[in-house]
Write a structure and sequence with these properties.
363 residues; alpha/beta; eight-stranded parallel barrel; 14 helices; 12 strands; globular; binds 2-Ketohexanoic acid; FMN
Length: 363
């Protein structure tokens, strides 16, 4: 590619050029047939925007408030693991990039820098992400998150076991050391059968964790809990009953169960079930400012960005993370101006058409 990247897809190409194949495959891959992986992106293309003209758009304000935290735009860095496989400075560089853009940083417990290192590296508002780990691991995570000024817990609930990413199995992907586990698990899992990331997950996860156990998690922390991995109205209702502070519509970047719907196709069902009782956040396949606009129009309060941030990190470290977030912010600002929306609250359901509406027009 000649010249500087002009959109986040070009950052993926840069990342592919600099990363060893095994790492690029790990970051970019999805589960099994990777059907949902493609759909997460394709489904956005099937939604059209209904712009309004002759609105005063001389000033655009993208700022919003998420769980009480003011951010410059409805963008959050998604919690993703293993950033040192992308860049030696790992999650510290990512968090600094997020801080420079004044957006919230999601930190995975399976990070390669410790949560303490990330916490002391910058002033970004940080949320810690956990899985349904065995209880002693979760209790340790909660204590450390509170001590280190994390502002919320993201409980990723779509991972009672790890999805099958076949590229990782073929490549015999070796997980980097997940430093947050030091002293918590006795052995570093190894497997000669394929990806050892799977063996790692099997050793740490508690697949019996279910809805009633959220009460236990709530009993050991004062931090608000966001539940990540909701794809149906039924589960959204259960999440509200369990008393979560927010819901993240996500299929884990299509890395868990293949043939789940593209997340943008599942968003409205969840939004309807939630009835504005808690904020609904969204991730999966966001590559353009127009994608963010569409997710907001369908009811999301903010979006999480996974792979593009990792690609920025791989290509240019902290600067790359910053550039990726800035690009998405600039594109969202442009979209809002051209669609006649001055603030994020001006973006409504009537600013998009989905396939459902287009079918109705034809009938
Ligand atoms: C390499 C990689 C690692 C991930 N690790 C985690 C993780 O540790 N915890 C988690 O909840 N989600 C994880 N995710 C999922 C992201 O949080 C997010 O849901 C997803 O990346 C969004 O889709 P996108 O990559 O298309 O933006 C990971 C995703 C990728 C690509
Ligand atoms: C045990 C690491 C889990 C990372 C993860 O969630 C993913 O790769 O999707």
């Amino acid at each position: 590619m000649a010249g500087e990247p002009v959109n986040v897809n070009e950052f993926e190409e840069l990342a592919r050029q600099v990363l060893p194949k095994i790492s690029y495959d790990f970051f970019s891959g999805g589960a099994e047939d990777q059907h949902t992986l493609k759909q997460n992106i394709e489904a956005f293309r099937r939604i059209t925007i209904r712009p309004r003209i002759l609105v005063d758009v001389s000033k655009i304000d993208m700022s919003t408030i998420i769980l009480g935290h003011k951010t410059s735009a409805p963008i959050i860095v998604a919690p993703t693991s293993s950033h040192q496989l992308a860049h030696p400075e790992g999650e510290v560089a990512t968090a600094r990039g997020a801080a420079a853009c004044n957006v919230i940083m999601g930190v995975a417990f399976t990070s390669t820098c410790t949560m303490e290192e990330v916490a002391s590296s910058c002033k970004a508002v940080r949320f810690i992400q956990t899985f349904a780990f065995k209880r002693e691991i979760t209790a340790n995570m909660v204590q450390r998150a509170e001590r280190n000024g994390f502002r919320a817990i993201i409980l990723t609930a779509d991972t009672p076991r790890l999805g099958r990413k076949e590229a990782d199995i073929k490549n015999k992907m070796i997980a980097p050391p997940f430093k947050n586990f030091e002293g918590l698990i006795s052995t570093v899992a190894v497997s000669d059968k394929g990806s050892n990331v799977e063996a790692y997950a099997a050793e740490t996860l508690d697949p019996s964790f279910c809805w009633k156990d959220i009460a236990w998690l709530k009993s050991i922390t004062k931090l608000p809990i966001l539940i990540k991995g909701v794809l149906t109205g039924e589960d959204a209702t259960k999440a509200i009953e369990a008393g979560v502070a927010g819901i993240i519509v996500s299929n884990h970047g299509a890395r868990q169960l293949d043939y789940t719907p593209a997340t943008i196709s599942a968003l409205e069902e969840v939004v309807h079930a939630v009835q504005v009782k808690v904020p609904v956040l969204f991730d999966g396949g966001i590559r353009r400012g127009t994608d963010i606009f569409k997710a907001l129009a369908l009811g999301a309060k903010a979006v999480l960005i996974g792979r593009p941030v990792i690609y920025g990190l791989a290509a240019k470290g902290e600067t790359g993370v910053k550039q990726v977030i800035e690009m998405l912010k600039n594109e969202l600002e442009q979209t809002m101006a051209l669609a006649g929306c001055r603030t994020v609250d001006d973006i409504t359901r009537s600013h998009v058409n989905t396939e459902t509406e287009r079918m109705e027009c034809r009938m």
